[in-house]
Amino acid sequence: MPASTKRRPQGTAPATLLARLNPRVALEAQADGNMAAHFDGYSERLGQFSAEAAERAPELRTGIALPSTSPEADITERGVERLIRQLARRGLLEYCVRRARDGREMAVIEPQIPDYWPQTPKLGDAETIVLSRFAYLRRRGTEMVLESPRAGALFRICDPVIAALLTTLATPQKISRLRRRDDYPGPALLALLLDCQIVIRIDAARRDVLRRAEGDDSLVLWDFHDLLFHARSTEGRQANPLGGLYPHAGMIAPLPAVRPAWSGKVIKLQQLDDVASPLDDLLRKRHSTRDFNDQKPVTLAELSAFLDGAARVRSNWSSKLEFADDGPDVEYTSRPYPAAGSAYELELYLAVANCEGLEAGFYHYDADAHALSAIDVHPQQFDAMLQGAAFAMDAPSPPHVLITIAARFGRISWKYSAIAYALILKDVGVLTQTLYMKATDLELGGCAIGTTNIDLFAKMTGLDFHVEGPVGQFALGRGMGPSPSE
Predict the structure, then answer these.
(1) DSSP string covering 295-312, please?
(2) What is the pLDDT, as a whole number, of residue 232?
(3) What is the pTM of this model?
(4) Three-state SS for 342?
(5) Domain with 344 in it
(6) Angle subtended by helix axes 454-461 and 379-393, to nearest 10
(7) What are the residues whose beta carbons fall under 8 Å from the beta carbon of 467, sequence distance 6 or more?
(8) Domain closes at, from 198, 215, 232
């Protein structure tokens, strides 16, 4: 019998799961009993803790077994658990899975969302599991990491035996069969992978429907690379550095602003000194505005004219599928800007902070009815969205109106394969220019924002991030004065 299928000795000790500080984080116990976490030049207060809990805090540098939440837990244990929870909510912990028999690390779990907390759902011997089609194993520096855009955490694989086992999960495997392997990691690691949707349960009798096995029909519409690009090029579901951080400064010289000319024959083109048309005038006046006049906010009438001119549905129709006589009718619209395949998958959500004639709040723009629908959101989430936009723009205060451009992903991926997300981003660029032009036409200020928080939007709307989510933002308001062109 091959070594990989030998029966494991019964009674093998389970793996242990430890919580430990992210290596960049330092804890400080203060004289008044408060504790603070210091990381990347920032300081975060964690609250007041007992002296006994504070004494155990340094153990988080090497790892503390997750405390019991049992009512019988003593005061110190409850204090340690509260400290761990406070750190976890801020994304300042990582979790280590160690073999109980020799203490070797099998994997380290790095949270990608602030409120990640490891869970170990039950896995019965009769159940069958397989790797999610969105899971991938890659090199990161000198480490091997297992990730998925659906997961709230990534797994740093420390034991090459585990990496080898993962390759077998490309095909469905019954738990009872895995338990007989010499490289079986124990139930804890597989349960943690299941919790992160890196591994999924399937019906052993229906292996022919693996694409649908993710448990959500909306995911059927996603190609692997598209969902990965969406999750890893936005905030909210990843812990990687993001934004204008100049990561290659000192390594590679910056490229020139204007491409060096080719050496072939040059044909000079006529230059127009005067403005030739109203469009030319708009294009020359367009600029980004980051500083808004709170004493003279945009009005509801101006907002209505802005949305009407930039995004309102102009007409509706339906037609049969191309190259098919028996397919369903597909509905289409026409709007002021062009869109791939006339899909018009983009929706506008408005965080209104300061608009004369309109109550502050979060709204969806119904482009067909030309109306705003109010959405109840938590005030802290509303403020976080506005403050995030101000931070992204490096602005002194939030805009009067923050427009989140969201995509109904299935609207376009139902038709297009391999290029769906690329088409969505092209549509975002076209719509953004249209928003700039209309803002300029109304003598308002606007500014495109390069990042969005897809997890925050999901919490505010109750929509899964892969069903409908933000792909762009645009700040709107009345500017303080002239701004430099960009």
Answers:
(1) TSPEEHHHHHHHHHHHH-
(2) 95
(3) 0.90
(4) helix
(5) 280-477
(6) 150
(7) 218, 408, 409, 410
(8) 215
